[in-house]
Design a protein that fits this description.
Elements (H helix, E strand, L loop, with lengths): L1 H15 L8 E2 L28 H10 L1 E4 L5 H15 L9 E3 L18 E3 L5 H4 L5 H11 L3 E11 L10 E4 L7 E2 L4 E7 L10 E3 L11 E2 L13 E2 L9 E4 L5 E4 L5 E3 L8 E10 L3 E2 L8 H15 L6 H8 L1 E4 L6
Parallel strand pairs: 1-12
Antiparallel strand pairs: 2-13, 3-4, 4-5, 5-15, 5-17, 6-14, 7-16, 8-13, 8-15, 9-12, 9-14, 10-11
Length: about 325
C-alpha cells in the first residue's frame, strides 16, 4: 500500500514537472489555481498566506518540499554575478569573511588565480554585487511565502561545479541543509537556488527526494568515498534508498525554492565545462538559535569553529556567533537572528 501511494505521488509530481520520466525531469513552475475538495487553508504547514503562490503551487510545496519558478532571475543579473565571481577568482576583490573553496583533488596544488580552480565561494554577505542576489525583489517576493515579511539572509553560496577529475569528487552527497543550521523552526527557513546556465544530469543537476522534508533531521557525516570528499560535504548515513528521486533540469534564471529538511544532492559533472549556480538560505527573523551540543549536529559545529579559527583567526567564539556574523536583514526588521 505504501509503495502504491508513493508511485501515485510520483506520477502527480512528474505531471507538475512536465510529464517526463523520473530520470530526466524538466522543471516547470505551476501557475494555475485549483480548488480540490477537502483541502482547507489551515492544512498548510510550510507556506504562508499571501497572493503570490497559487493554491496548486502551495499544495505542491507542501507535498514535495520544493518548487521551481521558471526564468525568475534575468540574464543581465546573472552575467553581473558571473563577472563578479571571476573578479574574486582573479583576486581583484577580496570581500571580508568570504570562504573560497577548491576541489579536494586540487586543493594542495599551487594556486593560480582562475575560475578553473575555485569550486565554490560562500559567505559573500560583504560582497556588494553578489549579495545583491539576496535582495532581488523577484526572489524576496517568493521567499516571503515561506518566511513571512521579516527576512534574514543567512547563508550565501556561488557554486562552480568543476568537470569531474575521474575520482567522482564533483558530486555532492545526499544531505539536508538543516544539518548545518543552529536555528529553528525549520519550517521558517527556505533556500533559493538559481541556475546560472543550462543544468542537466550531464553537468550535475540537483537531485531531490520529494516529500522528505516531512521527516526528521538525520545523522550526517563524511561519506566513505574512495576518491575523497570535499570539505564540509557531509552526507546522510541512513536514507531510504528506495525513495523516489527527481532530477531537476533547469535553464538559466530558473530558481528552485526548497525546505531545509528536503534530502537533496547532485551528481558528478561529466561535461567539460563548469556548472554555476547561486543560492541563499533565508529565514524568518523570528527564528531562534539553538545549542547543538549533544545532538547529531555537534560534528558540524566542531568543524565550522575549527575552520573559523584557521581561516579567519577567530577563537573563543560560538557557532551562534559565526551565524550572527553571516546574517543580514534583507526585508523588514531584524528580531532574534
Amino acid at each position: 500500500m505504501d509503495k502504491d501511494r508513493a508511485s501515485a505521488r510520483l506520477r502527480v509530481l512528474l505531471r507538475h514537472l512536465g510529464g517526463r520520466s523520473a530520470g530526466a525531469v524538466i522543471a516547470h513552475h505551476t501557475s494555475g489555481t485549483v480548488s480540490p475538495a477537502g483541502f482547507l487553508p489551515q492544512q498548510f504547514q510550510y507556506t504562508r498566506d499571501n497572493n503570490i503562490l497559487s493554491l496548486e503551487q502551495r499544495k505542491f510545496y507542501e507535498e514535495n518540499g520544493f518548487l521551481v519558478i521558471k526564468s525568475l532571475v534575468s540574464d543581465a543579473d546573472i552575467q553581473c554575478f558571473r563577472d563578479e565571481f571571476e573578479r574574486i577568482c582573479r583576486m581583484e576583490v577580496k570581500p571580508l569573511g568570504l570562504m573560497v573553496m577548491r576541489d579536494v583533488t586540487t586543493a594542495k596544488s599551487e594556486y593560480v588565480p582562475s575560475e578553473k580552480v575555485i569550486t565554490k565561494v560562500q559567505d559573500f554577505q560583504e560582497d556588494k554585487e553578489l549579495f545583491r542576489y539576496c535582495t532581488l525583489p523577484e526572489i524576496l517576493k517568493y521567499v516571503e511565502c515561506f518566511t513571512g515579511p521579516n527576512i534574514m539572509a543567512m547563508h550565501t553560496m556561488l557554486i562552480n561545479k568543476p568537470p569531474d577529475s575521474g575520482k567522482k569528487t564533483s558530486r555532492h552527497p545526499l544531505h539536508q541543509d538543516l544539518h548545518y543550521f543552529p536555528f529553528r523552526p525549520s519550517n521558517s527557513i527556505v533556500c533559493a537556488w538559481t541556475a546560472m546556465e543550462h543544468i542537466d544530469r550531464d553537468n550535475g543537476c540537483l537531485v531531490v527526494l520529494p516529500g522528505t522534508h516531512r521527516g526528521p533531521l538525520k545523522t550526517h557525516d563524511y561519506p566513505q568515498w574512495e576518491g575523497g570528499v570535499n570539505i564540509m560535504f557531509h552526507g546522510i548515513q541512513d536514507y531510504d534508498k528506495n525513495n523516489d528521486r527527481v532530477h531537476l533540469l533547469m535553464e538559466k534564471g530558473d530558481t528552485v525554492f526548497f525546505h531545509p529538511l528536503l534530502i537533496h544532492g547532485s551528481g558528478r559533472n561529466k561535461s567539460q565545462g563548469f556548472r554555476k549556480a547561486i543560492s541563499c538560505h533565508f529565514a524568518d527573523a523570528n527564528c531562534h538559535y539553538i545549542d547543538v551540543k549533544g545532538t547529531s549536529q555537534e560534528n558540524i559545529e566542531e568543524e565550522v569553529l575549527k575552520i573559523a579559527s584557521k581561516i579567519h583567526g577567530v577563537k573563543d567564539v560560538s557557532l551562534k556567533d559565526v551565524w550572527k556574523f553571516r546574517a543580514r536583514v534583507v526585508k523588514g526588521e531584524r528580531i532574534d537572528l
